[in-house]
Amino acid sequence: MLSSRLLQSLLVSALAVSASLSPASASCSLSFGKGGLSFGKGGSTIRDGDVVTATVKFNPAQQQQGKTPTQNQTPATPGQPCKVEVSAPGLTFGRKVFTFDPQDPSTHEQSVTCRTDAGSAPGKNGATIPVTVTFKPQSGQTPTTQVVQRQVVTAGKCSGWGDPHLSTLDGVAFDFQKAGVFRLFESRNFQVQVFQEKCAPTIKQGERSPSCYQGVSVAFAGSVVRFFLQNGQIVVGKGTSGLQWLLVEKLKAGEGYRVFTAVDHATYVDVTKGVWINNYAYLNVALQVSAYFKDASVNGLMGNWNEDKKDDVVDNDKLATTYGSPLTDNLFTCLNDGCGRFMRGPELKDDLARGLPNTMELLHQGFVPVEDHTIQLRAFEPKLPPLPKRRVLQADDPAALAVQADAAARAPQLCAAAINSVPLCHKYVANRGFFISTVCVPDASLVGDLAVAENTKLSYLRECRRELDSRIEANTTGTAGTLELLSDRLALKFGDLSTCERDCNGRGDCLAAGCHCNAGFTGYACEIQY
Questions:
Q1: Contact (CB, 8 A) for 225 and 248
Q2: Are 51 and 98 part of one and the same domain?
Q3: What is the CA radius of gyration of the chain?
Q4: What is the mean pLDDT of the segment spanning 148-168?
Q5: Shortest CA distance to 458 belongs to which of 409, 511, 404, 399?
Q6: pLDDT of 393 over the 70 cut
Q7: What is the pTM of this model?
Q8: Domain range holding 316?
Q9: For residues 366 and 252, what is the distance between their CA atoms, to the nearest angstrom?
């Protein structure tokens, strides 16, 4: 497995570490046998999703005269305090080094907060994997080890693309075409709301027109940040004076943001801009959620995340009634204390988790932090444009009808070619057909614009990178599995600001997730002309 330093996040279950000293006389002879590390009431399995306080215990005893250390014991320098480093791949500790003094009882029992790392490949959900805990004296003595078990809970992911095509946390795909403000996801004190309007290029279809995201608000533990499209540009505002519970980062290249929760960087919201015909801008939303937020409180348009596709509601009217909010009273319009009615403050679990290391380097590559003080405190007032009094039939505009018919005829082949041109990502995006048949082809046909293929390809690349990075950061694979993941990431040239495949053949810009091709081109390296 990778070292826990490279990969961190996704939280643990009750942990009590018992590091006993074998019989010793003014020495630090360490013995970590069966039961040296325990969880809860003596168990040996850690479950993803919880944060707990662990106890490291030191039990000094008198060494029998003339007795030498056993195989599991490591003699230390007599009379010296014993410094021990505790580490385990896939586990994150609030601190790693503990100093025990045989002469000072106050050092014999010490506490530390801990958790497991982030979510993992779907195939491992519910499985237990062995974790080797190493107790390493800093004096150069031989380390001792113990094997415990980690129960893996897969990270959840959901998204809304285009107009919008939703994929729930349990993997159900459907279209949600209502206009208004809606609760996309909620778990305890974490909530995401979206504002969507009838898409301008199709609004003349009236109620039959699809809808497009124009705003996204993210709230957690008393902090609110919001994104809104104004004049085709993403504008950022905060709903609370402080954003101490959220971390906002901006794409280094391209128009988009990533919002992390301060307690768990394995949970984040991606907001990126797309453009349709007539320069009409819309937002895409993708949410990655770790087991930290998986419980019975999960609700919203993205489902309940209970591993059962059958009970995900897809009826647009029912969803709008259940998860809709007034246009004048929501996470876009509230300020400071006024936002309190939409969310709860931090819980004890959040306070504990916030003090743990949360680097997760891969998830921050390609982004730069946005300082809290640079984000203006401001509210946005969602407004819905009036629908036309009568439906204007496409047949009223023969030229538009001809363009639409041409796009509809060419879209299936172009969309498939664009998505299939991307290597390796079929290993990480289980619903590749969703991007081709549900997102790309219908949208290109609807607006008569084949540029939709390029927008969809970029969304597919970003989805691929999210899943690949999540699996690496989860730290649940052995050495061979980890090397394969890292090799694929290198081959796809995912990085901070990668050198893209063949430099996009001079036909596009290189973003952190891959090529964003110029008009008239698509494909992994902008090799497909249309």
A1: yes
A2: yes
A3: 26
A4: 92
A5: 511
A6: no
A7: 0.88
A8: 155-392
A9: 6
